[in-house]
Each structure stands twice: as structure tokens, then as C-alpha cells.
TrEMBL record:
One MF annotation (Gene Ontology) recorded for this entry: metal ion binding
Pfam family, one: Whib
Matches recorded under InterPro entries: 4FE4S_WBL, Whib
PANTHER family reported in the protein's UniProt record: TRANSCRIPTIONAL REGULATOR WHID-RELATED (PTHR38839)
Name used for this protein in its record: Unannotated protein
The UniProt record lists the keyword 4Fe-4S: yes
Cofactors named for this entry: [4Fe-4S] cluster
Residues in 4Fe-4S Wbl-type domain copies: 15-72
Keywords assigned: 4Fe-4S, Disulfide bond, DNA-binding, Iron, Iron-sulfur, Metal-binding, Transcription, Transcription regulation
GO biological process, one term: cell redox homeostasis
Keyword GTP-binding attributed: no
Protein family per UniProt: Belongs to the WhiB family.
Amino acid sequence: MDNNIRSTRWMGQGNCRNFPPAVFFPVDGAGVDRARAICATCPVVNDCLEYALSEHIDHGVWGGCSERERRRIAKRRRIALRVAD
């Protein structure tokens, strides 16, 4: 795993640093859309998503993806690993 992702140094460069944390832990679809819009232009969106996936974070919007989207990505990756074996 890339040490930069695990180190979290990238977090200080995220667009999210300019917003209250609650924005990224929405309770409805409109809130998820707002968080995604912020993530859409973020320079570290990929690092953020990989961090959330590697750390099994199951809440909030990370890397522009909701909890459900991250579960789907993780499942696809697990299936791909099994197929590759």
C-alpha cells in the first residue's frame, strides 16, 4: 500500500478542509450530492477514496463516494482478487 495514503498527509490538501465535517456526514441524498460536488474538484479525491477503502470506513462521503458506493467498490475488488487467484 502506498505510504502516502496511509500517512494521511494528503488530508491537508483536500477541499474538505474548508468545510465543516458535518457536510461530509449527511443524513439525506441532497447532503450527499453537496459533498460529492465539493469532492468533484478535489486534488486528493483518489487518495481520499483509497484511504476510506483501505481503512474500511463505513460512514460519510469519502473520495466523492457514499457508504453504499464504497461497499460496491470493495466488493468488486474482492471478486476481482478471487478471480485473479
